[in-house]
Amino acid sequence: MAPVEDGTHLAGFEDWHPAVRQMISAVPVTQRWALFHRPPLSCWSRGRVTLLGDAAHALVPHHGQGANQSIEDAIVLADQLTGTADWDAARRRYEQLRRGRTRKVQSASIITADVLHLPDGPRADERNVRLASPGMFDRHLSWIHGFRADVDTPDDAGGGTRL
Q1: Second label for 2, Cα 20 to 30 Å away, from 35, 66, 95, 161?
Q2: How far is the C-alpha of 20 from the C-alpha of 12, rounded, in Å?
Q3: How far apart are the first and last CA of the chain?
Q4: What is the pLDDT of residues 94-123, one digit of tens each?
């Protein structure tokens, strides 16, 4: 973390509506921190302990998927554990079913950071046109937001089940 001068968090909002500036200024900001990502773990289970969510595959917030991926993990892990008495095999199957998808979500979130944080200019304008285009959600985000962990198995477009 690094200290910041009072009010510097408003600098990027100078031309915004006064109501937005008022909401942002209502929150005191005295420190700035970085977002870090870490490479995916090679193994999510050891002994009787199995990781899920950010403990297994930490995410940066650019797709808002941290809690969602944890919930998906919990659904898949619970389904695997209730389907067999061999809990070691169930945990291995859970990892197999989740690893490809969570890696793809991790990668997409990291890449999206660069897209979302472009400085004002032609590239940001091009991005804005693409984001506003009809069907953009279905073309680019449905693999994330349309997935149902209780019924779907990730296909190749959604990260698959590759280890």
Answers
A1: 66
A2: 12
A3: 35
A4: 999 999 999 999 988 988 888 888 899 999
**CA distance linking residue 49 with residue 139, whole number of Å:** 38
CA angle 59, 62, 65 (to 5 degrees): 55
Rounded CA separation 86/91 (Å): 9
Answer for the pair 113, 62: CB distance below 8 angstroms, yes or no: yes
* Measured distance CA(97)–CA(73) in Å, rounded: 9
Block residue for tokens 């490809």: 100
pLDDT per residue as tens digits for the range 59-102: 988 888 989 999 999 999 999 999 899 999 999 999 999 999 99
